[in-house]
TrEMBL record:
SMART domains: Aamy. Monomer. Residues 34-45 have a biased composition (Basic residues). The keyword Disulfide bond does not apply. Residues 310-670 form the Glycosyl hydrolase family 13 catalytic domain. Pathway: Capsule biogenesis; capsule polysaccharide biosynthesis; Glycan biosynthesis; glycogen biosynthesis. The active site is at D462, E515. The gene is glgB. Residues 1-71, 753-772 are annotated as: Disordered. This is 1,4-alpha-glucan branching enzyme GlgB.
Length: 793
């Protein structure tokens, strides 16, 4: 994985849109919208008595006592934002003598309680507190008439409602086992006790108090303190009248008494960066991919064709939204025959130059391209085009932005409490505390969220190696061994096992893919199967084969005359090919930061470079393992990828003189996918040694590699690569004697791909001459710098 720069920057919602204390809203409601003109009403008569004295007011002709204000301690804690149970003070409560009403409305001039025919003008206790005692037997359903300068509003009392989270939710939260965490925490428009509004809930166990601030209260959360729900560390509040589209943050009072405005970790929608507020979201999307989902689990991923097109959505066609991409991307990918797309991280991130690998909004698709329903539309359209959707997922680390997860409630919370364990040494970020059950729950539920809510078919988990090792990129003295004296991060192992087991249990047909660059034992082994290292498997479905990628690209970068000295780099992958279930990745990481594009890695002139790329792709598609190719490489883009402008599509413009060269490579990729998908020998036994057999793997002097791929019934495909720039006529290869003739089904040197058209047009019949340890042999013409595929005629 390439190191990405960290994100930072001021929070506009911390310095703008917030009313100074002591000011009164004029001409606007606390929702930030112009109210309808209210009929002028005479405000109830109020006394001028002190807050602790009694006064009287008329209720239906009777004189009743006005309750004293909340006691000094409650007032101080509510004003300071450090009250754990504001509902115990505010709202309506049975007390000796009747029902006490207490309201905290900063900037209000008067507050009247309305309940049926009952109208009670509350006493102004100062500092925004209003109270009254009504001789009623039971607490009535009531509303509040709040007078501000120049306007009145009739509103619900947020502090008359029971908690919106039930005992089961709280139990699962406390256990760290809430697999649909996003349904409990965050902001959810709902109808609660017959009233429409939004319920807010956030985990902040170290906070002295939490308040909700947003556009609906001019970014001043003083009047909207949340309650703490027992020992769970969860704070909750239902706000009537707040609906989808409202901006909000949590105003947290930290243990040292200071305050911080934080975006919601469970926000399902965000503002467009660089703005940082969370957005209340309600989805009304109707899916149309039922047929896709019904058949997604028909075959496990490692026994099915998988050819992946990796995409950075913001730069694939710069400027397009999710819905605009949905009109172009599915058609393009389907035309080229890829089975899947893999989307570089979609979760919200503040710095575009991180490509999405430094996430601040783990539950929100980036707002740069549209809202969450727009992203659902893109996934839906891909599915309806027959294309699976994988997504890069980044549970290894997160940036230090002071409005996001870092020291969220004033102390290390999502990150490890040990600074040596918290700081990621490569990227200036923070590592998650995988040993904390609530943090594991946050991440495991996040994996489930993307697959259940957005119908994502699989997660490619980024930077797994950095999670697995305590000494990853750390020098001696910068890390401490685990309890057994080893360097394995046991907490991360347990987290990955839990994540995989949970996801595979809940979502039929899903696949997880590990970007894991070491020789960790059992990445794709089942979690309950213990390996020689003593660990159960991590439970992934597939693993990126980084060794194959590095070795094969190194081989291809050498001039052909020197390749014989590096021949083993092309054969070594078969030594360990069946130790895991592999993906062969030519990803974004290999075509940036001075590494050059795929075609530019190749030696020789322009013709040879393209021939080398075509031969390499033919070899790659035939090699055991699934294929992944980054956008732009399918048409031999010469320049490195840049997120600023994306692929060089102009290379395919017929007006460009060399466009045929690039279209030829793209045509090859299309044909590779077409033949691949139609040939079970190339994918059915990707993970079983019986699906592969060398014909010749030691022809280093010739720069030739030849092998058979075999279907379950033994039906073969013969792949032959000649990585020398010379034609080899009559090249003899040993073959099975039961095949009466072989037919060339793909040749990367064909003229339509831009090659020299050195082909084998006629069926090739075996001769009874044994060769390469086989009873029969055939003689082929091998084109220069090319790969040839043959099937039984």
């Amino acid at each position: 994985m390439t190191p990405r720069p960290s994100s930072s920057g001021p929070d506009p919602r911390k310095t703008t849109g917030k009313k100074p204390a002591g000011k009164t809203p004029t001409g606007k409601t606390p929702t930030g919208k112009k109210p309808a003109k209210a009929a002028k009403k005479k405000a109830p008569r109020r006394t001028t008595a002190s807050a602790n004295a009694s006064a009287t007011t008329s209720v239906s002709g009777a004189e009743v006592a006005v309750s004293p204000a909340p006691d000094a301690a409650d007032r101080e804690r509510l004003l300071a934002g450090t009250h754990h149970d504001p509902h115990a003070v505010l709202g309506a409560h049975r007390v000796p003598g009747g029902v006490a009403f207490r309201v905290f409305r900063p900037y209000a001039l008067a507050v009247t309680v309305l309940s049926g025919e009952l109208r009670v003008g509350l006493h102004d206790d100062g500092d925004g507190f209003f109270s009254g005692l009504v001789p009623l037997k039971d607490v009535p359903a009531h509303r509040l008439l709040v007078a501000y300068e120049g306007t009145e509003q009739e509103v619900e009392d947020p502090y008359r409602f029971l908690p919106t989270l039930g005992e089961l939710d709280l139990h699962l939260l406390g256990e760290g086992r809430h697999e649909q965490l996003w349904r409990a925490l965050g902001a959810h428009p709902t109808t609660h006790e017959g009233v429409a509004g939004t319920r807010f809930a956030v985990w902040a166990p170290n906070a002295r108090g939490v308040r909700v601030a947003g556009g609906f209260n001019f970014w001043d959360g003083t009047g909207h303190p949340m309650r703490s729900l027992g020992s769970t560390g969860v704070w909750e509040l239902f706000l009537p009248g707040v609906g989808a589209g409202e901006l909000y943050k949590f105003e947290i009072t930290r243990p040292d008494g200071s305050r911080t405005f934080r975006a919601d970790p469970l926000a399902r929608r965000t503002e467009v960066p660089p703005a940082t507020s969370s957005v209340v979201h309600a989805s009304d999307y109707t899916w149309g991919d039922e047929e896709w989902l019904a058949h997604r689990a028909d075959a496990p991923a490692h026994e099915a064709p998988m050819s992946v097109y990796e995409v950075h959505l913001p730069s694939w066609r710069p400027g397009l939204t999710y819905r605009q991409l949905a009109e172009q991307l599915p058609a393009y990918v389907a035309d080229l025959g890829f089975t899947h797309v893999e989307l570089m991280p979609v979760a919200e991130h503040p710095f575009g130059g991180s490509w999405g690998y430094q996430v601040t909004g783990f539950y929100a698709p980036t707002a740069r391209l549209g809202d969450p329903d727009d992203f659902k539309y893109l996934v839906d359209r891909l599915h309806r085009a027959g294309i699976g959707v994988l997504m890069d997922w980044v549970p290894a680390h997160f940036p230090r932005d002071d409005w996001a997860l870092a020291e969220f409630d004033g102390r290390p919370l999502y990150e490890h409490s040990d600074p040596l364990r918290a700081a990621h040494p490569d990227w200036g970020t923070l590592e998650f505390d995988f040993g904390r059950r609530e943090v594991r729950n946050f991440l495991v539920a996040n994996a489930v969220y993307w697959c259940e809510e957005f119908h994502i078919d699989g997660l490619r988990v980024d930077a797994v190696a950095s999670m697995l090792y305590l000494d990853y990129s750390r020098e001696p003295g910068e890390w401490e061994p685990n309890e057994h004296g080893g360097r394995e991060n046991l907490d991360a192992v347990a987290f990955l096992q839990e994540m995989n087991a949970t996801l595979y249990r809940r979502v039929p047909g899903v696949v997880t893919v590990a970007e894991e660059s070491t020789a960790w034992d059992g990445v794709t082994r089942a979690t309950h199967h213990e390996g020689p290292s003593g660990f159960g498997g991590l439970g992934f479905g597939l693993k990126w084969n980084m060794g194959w990628m590095h070795d094969s690209l190194d081989y291809m970068s050498h001039e052909p005359v020197h390749r014989k000295h590096h021949h083993g780099e092309m054969t070594f992958s078969m030594v360990y090919a069946y130790s895991e279930n592999y993906v062969l990745p030519i990803s974004h990481d290999e075509v940036v930061h001075g590494k050059r594009s795929l075609v530019s890695k190749m030696p020789g002139d322009w013709w040879q470079q393209r021939a080398n790329e075509r031969a390499y792709l033919g070899f790659m598609w035939a090699h055991p393992g699934k294929q992944l190719l980054f956008m732009g490489q399918e048409f031999a883009q010469g320049a490195e990828w840049s997120e600023a402008h994306g692929p060089d599509w102009w290379l395919l413009d017929p007006e460009y003189g060399a466009s045929a060269d690039h279209r030829g490579v793209r045509d090859l990729v299309r044909d590779l996918n077409t033949v691949y998908r139609a040939t079970p020998a190339l994918w059915r036994r990707d993970t079983h040694p019986s699906g592969f057999s060398w014909v010749v793997g030691d022809a280093a002097e010739d720069n030739v590699l030849a092998f058979l791929r075999l279907d379950a019934d033994g039906t073969p495909l013969l792949a032959v690569s000649n990585f020398a720039p010379v034609v080899r006529s009559g090249y003899r290869l040993g073959v099975p004697d039961e095949v009466p003739a072989w037919h060339e089904v793909l040749n990367t040197d064909a003229a339509r791909y831009g090659g020299g058209d050195v082909v084998n047009p006629d069926p090739v019949k075996p001769e009874p001459q044994g060769w390469h340890g086989r009873p029969a042999s055939i003689r082929l013409t091998l084109p220069p710098l090319a790969t040839v595929w043959l099937r039984p005629a």
